[in-house]
Specification:
Length: about 70
Amino acid sequence: MLPPWLPSPRTVGALQRVLLVALLTPAVLVALGAAVPALVLLPLLPGGTDRATKLLSAHTRYLSTLLTESRTAP
């Protein structure tokens, strides 16, 4: 039995997700901002479209994994 002054595990899990997203959003925005020049220039180079697609896929995979794994079990 938890002491009454402690929040429930469900509330703690929700707060952890909010904190994780709040802390990592600036880092992700910086990474995406750094990738913008590459995404602008890569399609102009031979084979660059494939590399730009891989770069976007990597960012999408990273973000979806981050958000999926930050969820608590019901």
